[in-house]
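JOB MANIFEST
job_type = single_chain_structure
chain_count = 1
residues = 201
[input]
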Amino acid sequence: MSGRPDDAGQHGDFEAYRADIEAAERRVASEIDPGGRGLVVAICVFVLLASFLAPHTGAVRGWDVLFAANGADEALVSLPSRLFMWLALLFGVGFSMLALLLRRWAVAWVALAGSAVGSVAGLLAVWSRQTVAAGHPGPGFGLILAWITLIVLTFHWARLVWSRTAVQLAAEEQRRRNTAQRQVLGLLDELKPPEDPPPGE
């Protein structure tokens, strides 16, 4: 019976060590490692920003569409075009850069979701310029470039988020198995009958 206090101390040390390991696993699981895709995402962000300076429709540039300036109203720039440009700026540029800097899985997920919605809005924006009233310009180079770039961004964020999600699910499953195994071992230790002291003690 003299060894039981030492066993309890060792068990407590192990539990503290295990808690530290699990906290580190959760912290790592919440981060992303863009690797080579990070460079592709950064290039896409730069191209997306450059597309704002290119003609969106006629002589109206992307920045003009955002703020309804320099003839945007005269060119009949519709709501889908404005919505697309704001989504591209907010998620394609803003959250993409934030995700690359912070390397947080949650921010990358927001960048993915926003870029995906923006890609659909881009389709509507192109369609709205193709069906505009006669005498008004159709989709410009800047609009097409921004739409394609946002689709590429969506693809790369989807690959990054999915790979990290698979790692998180595997880590959670491993933690559940380890916890269940420790519970079974602890139950067996409790059910184990105490050892009889040696004769003469």
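[summary]
The longest strand covers residues 55-57.
The longest helix spans residues 141-191.
exit_status = 0
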